[in-house]
Design goal:
This protein is of the alpha+beta class.
Length: 203
């Protein structure tokens, strides 16, 4: 499975809703949980399951008639960093889990949301998004390329550490991170220009 990173924009008036209601935060991050229906198992197995009062539930195939708790993200409202989030953090900060603000905003800074140990979700305020955007805009892909250090990244166990020094990969890992950086810089710049906050999630 692995851990994936993504960011989603949110308008400032909507922030109190996800801050105060864990159900809305979950729907905002992951969409509504699929509905379930009871499935009637045929034959002898079904007879024994009914005898033991065991229900078999499966995900509903028909769309729910209920309004979703939170609308799905529109075009440009969410970005996936895939598994590049930790490598990007290293390129931005030179560390595995530290660094100064705003360079460290992928892994720290902002306001913690929720209390799920398996999901790290943080809110970057409008001001922090602008600050982060300015910092990313000040960096060139050439500078980030120079910061790519397979030996140090492997030593620090930067996530996906098994790929950084693979000779058969050639420039693929570096290109993977640089492409993710370019997408991140554009996404944050747009969020800043439109006055949005951003939720950063590693899950």
């Amino acid at each position: 499975m692995g851990m994936y990173g993504y960011l989603r924009r949110i308008a400032p008036p909507d922030v109190p809703r996800i801050r105060d209601d864990p159900r809305l935060l979950g729907a905002f991050l992951f969409g509504d949980a699929p509905g379930v229906v009871e499935e009637r198992v045929p034959g002898l197995l079904g007879f024994f399951l009914r005898l033991m009062r065991i229900k078999v539930e499966v995900a509903a195939t028909e769309p729910s008639s209920k309004e979703p708790l939170w609308p799905r993200p529109g075009a440009g409202e969410q970005i996936s960093l895939d598994k590049a989030w930790h490598g990007l953090h290293y390129l931005l900060t030179g560390t595995a889990d530290g660094g100064r603000e705003p360079a460290c905003f992928l892994l720290s800074g902002g306001e913690d949301l929720g209390d799920d140990d398996d999901v790290q979700a943080r809110l970057l305020s409008v001001e922090q998004v602008r600050w982060f955007g300015e910092h990313l805009a000040s960096l060139s892909t050439e500078e980030l390329t120079r910061r790519f250090d397979p030996d140090q990244m492997t030593k620090l166990r930067i996530y996906l550490d098994v790929i950084w020094k693979r000779p058969e990969e050639e420039d693929a890992p570096r290109g993977y991170l640089i492409a993710a950086f370019t997408d991140l810089r554009e996404f944050v710049a747009t969020a800043a220009a439109e006055g949005d906050a951003v939720v950063v999630c590693i899950s």
